[in-house]
């Protein structure tokens, strides 16, 4: 009987190992041929690996190796001699001794993925996603996106949050509204989750603090640079708060941790993209009505709709706080009640407003959060006030009927945050396979 | 201007801190009243917190505190004096000085959540999920489920895998078949992802090694104890493999890491549930046809369908390897080609079988994996052989046309693994809010 005991070890060196190896050492590695530059008797064969680009060198007439058959897109295993070379990306290159082709493409690459910057349009790059992502800059964005999610989870584990997984198919929408994808579930009408909102609140009654990272679905008929119809939501919800300031404080510390994770563990990708991260050391918090007034006064923009915040106003708020306080992030608090869902807690001192907030980064909303109603009777009142009924909310309401601590939470749009951190102007740049009104594939 | 600078610190002690505090120290904590036992002049008020149960004690006539108004389901903040007490769960209890009620339930609890074991039926517990999960044993399962996912990701980050997020709504199903949920996507026909299979393969061409944890959707008309129609799939895919043994080796090491994570970081929950974890130190690997023969011979069960594995046969394979080798896990390799999807790599030495495997735990499949076809022409051949067309697979095929390394991967059903590790007999016990043919809520 054969037994599996663990990873089948191989003598494959990574780029760091090759960089640290002694001059003259033999090293074996593998990767995909990213580019070949033929310079007469010498050729540079650049390998693309998960840990970066590795320069290998072929010298004609050395040994009986012949690289004429090699081409971009070949997956290869190579054996070579380590040579220190300051101009090489990691301070060392490999002088090729042997090359074994593991697999070959059928056609030449349709995009010059080895170029530093792909010049193709966004549409073309999205259509050719499996290939365009092989460009080192294109893929670096998604490594950074990984870092955001990793930092999010690590921080919350450390703060006593429990990770949960809630269903994406349900009988009724959590938040109501028209922007819901509908489907037939064994002949019963069903919907796709717009957010894990009601479930994460229910789970505060179980674990006090919970988080989830997962897809959400919005059938919004928006085709803008900042909307996706499916995106990844980073959600958290926490009990035993004194007020929504506790949520903003938690998010501030969370962002600090995420930024630190990127600075330390994703340095290479930040450098590839020449990204300078914003600072979340101190984030100003300003009331919704106050923010509108400040912006109106400074930029001479009349307040047209006192209970609405238009995208241009968001941008100006971002500009204002950058100019006045050097701030990249801004909390805008006390959103109008009529703009918030039924579960938002109203401000007792002025019930037109809620104890809630948005977080703006560079003038764009990346988070919505706030305190929720925890009292069963107040929740019912709010539901009736809105002309809603308890139908479809029975289980949610049970959690409150039998006792819930004061609580609140937030949701961060992963692609929005990624886009803003990277300084991209279209959220599709921050989604591997974006879904919008016109794009259902690849 | 107000600035948020990080977590708003509070003097709230956790259970561990209280256990480590000095006799007579004052401590403030918060939680939900899990149970009240009134014993005449003394009452025990058990608080449920995210970190466990804490015993607090009220003595009549001490101070001007009166706990007559307290009830189960109240969320409270308490101040008390630490008293070492060996019989208390964490070696210390809190003698109450002050109690502040943060919120109150509207009705008495409909389930005795403070009982050690809830006696209600599975159906009743699922219907009342927000409340039944407040039982300490019920919730412990999902803490352990968190540990599985945490261990999965930690291990793969360490092995150079990149985490990806792929869309759950698509134009066409990855794997074909009838078990697909359909929906209208802005008037275009669309489907929910049965797995991230094609995307994770595409991403091997970008990052060499990738993983994803996310929901998958199967419209299977099975109503069994081991099927869910929505579940969480732990997926990985890796390039530059020599054979599918590399995948099995990686999974073995992965399971070892997950089990170690549970043993060390989730000890409390394992103890609550009295779970003894299986061993993944060495996992036997047996061919599909050989396994059928062994089981047939030992248990006198004639082989009816040589290319099928029935659930009872899986169970017997589990039994056989437990009896003969003391093994909890078994890899069953070389599944018949006709039982595997088009992308599975056939065994060149006998094309009726594939270079693939299932992993059984206690006789139940928890993983399907294997090597995939990486050669563009062979992949096309297989597609045509199956009577399929390239339609809807264009982007997937592009990845191969322009070069893909040899690769393979696997998917683990999170709820199945959880269920088996916990020794539960119904997969619904391992899903917070299960979705089956009859259950679309809560």
UniProtKB/TrEMBL annotation, chains A, B:
Enzyme class comes to ligase
Give the record's GO CC terms.
Answer: aminoacyl-tRNA synthetase multienzyme complex; cytosol
Q: Where is this site: Important for tRNA non-discrimination?
A: 89
Q: Name one Pfam family in it.
A: tRNA-synt_2
CDD domains cross-referenced by the UniProt entry: AsxRS_core
Fill in the subunit field for this protein.
Homodimer.
What reactions does this protein catalyze? tRNA(Asx) + L-aspartate + ATP = L-aspartyl-tRNA(Asx) + AMP + diphosphate
Where, by residue number, does ATP bind? Answer: 218-220, 226-228, 365, 413-416
Subcellular localization, as worded in the UniProt entry: Cytoplasm
Provide this UniProt record's keywords sorted from A to Z: Aminoacyl-tRNA synthetase, ATP-binding, Cytoplasm, Ligase, Nucleotide-binding, Protein biosynthesis
Question: Mainly resides where?
Answer: cytoplasm
Question: Carries keyword Secreted?
Answer: no
The UniProt record lists the Aminoacyl-transfer RNA synthetases class-II family profile domain at 142-442
EC number annotated for this UniProt entry = 6.1.1.23
Q: Provide the protein name.
A: Aspartate--tRNA(Asp/Asn) ligase
Organism of origin is: Candidatus Lachnoclostridium stercoravium
């Amino acid at each position: 009987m054969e037994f599996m005991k663990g990873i089948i070890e191989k003598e494959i060196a990574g780029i760091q190992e090759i960089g640290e190896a002694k001059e003259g050492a033999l090293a074996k590695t593998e990767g995909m041929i990213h580019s070949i530059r033929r310079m007469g008797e010498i050729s540079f064969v650049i390998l693309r690996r998960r840990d970066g680009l590795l320069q290998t060198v072929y010298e004609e007439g050395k040994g009986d190796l012949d690289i004429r058959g090699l081409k971009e897109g070949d997956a290869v295993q190579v054996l070579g001699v380590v040579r220190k070379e300051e101009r090489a990306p990691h301070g060392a290159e490999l002088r090729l001794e042997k090359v074994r082709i593991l697999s070959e493409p059928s056609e030449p690459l349709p995009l010059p993925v080895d170029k530093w910057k792909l010049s193709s349009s966004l549409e073309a790059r999205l259509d050719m996603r499996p290939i365009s992502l092989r460009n080192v800059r294109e893929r670096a964005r998604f490594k950074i996106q990984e870092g955001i999610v990793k930092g999010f989870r690590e921080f919350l584990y450390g703060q006593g949050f429990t990770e949960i997984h809630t269903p994406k198919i349900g009988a009724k929408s959590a938040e109501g509204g028209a922007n819901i994808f509908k489907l037939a579930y064994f002949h019963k009408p069903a919907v796709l989750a717009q957010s894990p909102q009601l479930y994460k609140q229910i789970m505060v009654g179980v674990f006090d603090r919970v988080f989830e990272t997962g897809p959400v679905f919005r059938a919004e008929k928006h085709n803008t640079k900042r909307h996706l119809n499916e995106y990844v939501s980073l959600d958290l919800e926490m009990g035993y708060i004194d007020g929504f300031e506790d949520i903003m404080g938690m998010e501030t510390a969370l962002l600090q941790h995420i930024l630190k994770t990127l600075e330390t563990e994703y340095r290479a990708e930040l450098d590839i993209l020449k990204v300078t991260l914003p600072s979340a050391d101190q984030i100003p918090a300003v009331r919704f009505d106050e923010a509108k007034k400040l912006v109106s006064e400074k930029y001479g923009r009349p307040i047209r709709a006192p209970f609405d915040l238009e995208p241009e106003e968001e941008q100006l708020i971002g500009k204002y706080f950058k100019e006045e306080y050097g701030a990249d992030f801004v909390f805008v608090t006390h959103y109008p009640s009529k703009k918030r869902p039924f579960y938002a807690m109203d401000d007792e001192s002025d019930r037109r407003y809620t104890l809630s907030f948005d977080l703006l980064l560079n003038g764009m909303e990346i988070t919505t959060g706030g305190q929720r109603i925890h009292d069963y009777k107040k929740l019912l009142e709010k539901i009736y006030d809105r002309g809603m009924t308890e139908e479809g909310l029975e289980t949610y309401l049970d959690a409150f009927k039998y006792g819930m601590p004061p609580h609140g939470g937030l949701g961060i749009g992963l692609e929005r945050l990624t886009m803003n951190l990277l300084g991209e102007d279209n959220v599709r740049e921050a989604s591997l396979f974006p879904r919008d009104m016109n794009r259902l594939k690849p």
